[in-house]
Each structure stands twice: as C-alpha cells, then as structure tokens.
Design goal:
single chain, 261 residues, alpha/beta, Rossmann fold, 7-stranded parallel β-sheet, 8 helices, binds fructose -6-phosphate, identical protein binding
Length: 261
C-alpha cells in the first residue's frame, strides 16, 4: 500500500485527478469506479477542470458506481445515481449510457445486487476505483464485520453512518435510508487500482487503523492491505495519527515523478 500525505483536500483532489487523466490518456475507454459523499468532490472538480482546459478528453471513459441507497425513489437528488450524474457524468462530458450502477429502487433488490456484480465482471473490470472511508472504517458501505470476500449485496447502515450522512438529508436522520446496495469488499478488491482519499481529522483514527492496524473485518478498509496496487491519499489532518508518517513522506518524496500514483 502506498500512502501519500498531501497538505489539504484540494492537493489530494489534484493528485488523484491527474492519475485519472493519465489513465484515460493511456486507455480512453477506462472504467472508473466512483465514490460519492463529500471527500471525492475535489477530485471531480480537478478532473472537470482538466477536461474544460482540454488537458484530457474523458468523453469515452466509462463510469461505475460503488454503492446506492435502497428505497429512494428514482431521480431523488440524493440517490447516488443522481449524485454521480450531477457531479461526474455531466461535468466530464460523459454519455449517461457509459454509466453503470445498481438499481436501488428495484422490486427484487437481491437480484439487482447479483445483476450489478455480474455486469461489473462482464465489463472487463474496473481500472481505477475511487474510495472514501467512513469514520467507522467502511469502504463502499461495507460496514464493520463485513466479510472481506463479500460480493455486491444489501447492507444495513450503522447508526454512525446514518448520523454522518444526515447532512445530505436536511440534517434529519429519519430521512436517511437504513439499507444500501454496496459492492462487496471482494468485488472492490478486483479493481486494478484502488485509490482511497481521506481528509479531515474525523478520519484520522480510521486511516491509522486501515494503514497500520491489523487486517480485520472490524475495519473493512484494512482489506486494502491485501491489494497489489492500493494508494491511500490523506491530508495532514487525516494523517495525524499515523506512526509512520515521516517514512511515508520520505518514500513519496523519493519516488520518480514518471511513476505517478
Ligand atoms: C459513498 C461511499 C462511502 C463514503 C464514506 C465517506 O459512495 O462509498 O464509503 O466514501 O462514507 O463519506 P464522506 O466522503 O462524505 O465522508
């Protein structure tokens, strides 16, 4: 696992957006797995700026969702489909048909989970999967004690996650769905490159447990330790509990620039 400490969220967004742009230049139909929530927004803003400046043409890239709320009506502004269309697909100039996601409003949610897992496998695989991290160590919505080999399935959100996400629902926890569809940890680990961004002091404990703690289902993000190409980008605040911070800084500083992330 490579850990990169950046001054702030904007710098993290720029670094990851450049890695995504480089991937798209190499592979114009790359499949990019996107996360939602607040953390990845600086990445999407930086990548959209590159597209607007003509530094990369993302129009043939493909996008897939990491997770989705269950039970929100189609078109709900906080459904992750709506968020990804608004924050990623439109600003990057992608065609909506290049976008895959699980159907959180399906009558048969289990079948929707299986169909999405199969669609991901049939797509040729995710080239780069962006991840955020929950304060409880979740990735996607694999809450603590998720199986490290889990596939896309329905999960129940912890109370902590519902409290954390109430800000997207008028600060009213009652409006936050209890259930989600999430790519499983086993599904996520199949992506060729995992890039996790964590910013802010509130993520410091989860980051330390992910990077320096034991591999444990109690900290689902620690599964990144199993991946051959996982990059964890953290700002100073989120890095504040890392014992090996100086080593990570020195390692990245010594890395040849051409290697990228
Ligand atoms: C959302 C997702 C979640 C978030 C996590 C952090 O698609 O997969 O794992 O990344 O809950 O959310 P923020 O970035 O809002 O702190």
């Amino acid at each position: 696992m490579e850990v990169v400490i950046v001054p702030d969220a904007k710098a993290g967004g720029e670094l990851i957006a450049e890695a995504m742009a480089a991937l798209i230049r190499r592979k114009p139909d790359a499949l990019l797995g996107v996360a939602t929530g607040s953390t990845p927004l600086p990445i999407y803003e930086a990548l959209a700026a590159k597209v607007a400046a003509g530094a990369v043409d993302a129009s043939t890239a493909r996008i897939c969702q990491l997770d989705e709320y269950v039970g929100l009506p189609q078109g709900h502004p906080e459904s992750y489909r709506s968020v990804v269309l608004r924050e990623v697909v439109e600003p990057l100039g992608l065609t909506p048909s290049s976008f895959m996601g699980p159907d959180g409003s399906a009558a048969d949610v289990q079948a929707a989970c299986e169909a999405y897992d199969q669609a991901l496998a049939a797509s040729g695989g995710v080239d780069l999967q962006l991840l955020g991290i929950g304060t409880d160590g979740h990735i996607g919505f694999n809450e603590p004690c998720s199986s490290l080999s889990s596939r896309t399935r329905i999960k129940t959100l912890t109370n902590q996650t519902r409290v954390d996400n109430a800000r997207f629902f008028d600060n009213d926890i009652e409006q936050v769905p209890h259930h989600v569809i999430t790519q499983g940890i086993g599904t996520i680990l199949e992506a060729r490159h995992l890039v996790l961004l964590a910013t802010g002091e509130g993520k410091a404990d989860a980051v330390a447990a992910t990077v320096e703690g034991p591999l444990s289902a109690l900290v689902p993000a620690s599964a990144l330790q199993l991946h051959r190409h996982a990059t964890v980008v953290v700002d100073e605040a989120a890095a504040s509990k890392l014992k090996l911070a100086e080593y990570f800084r020195a390692t990245f500083a010594a890395k040849p620039e051409w290697q990228g992330l």
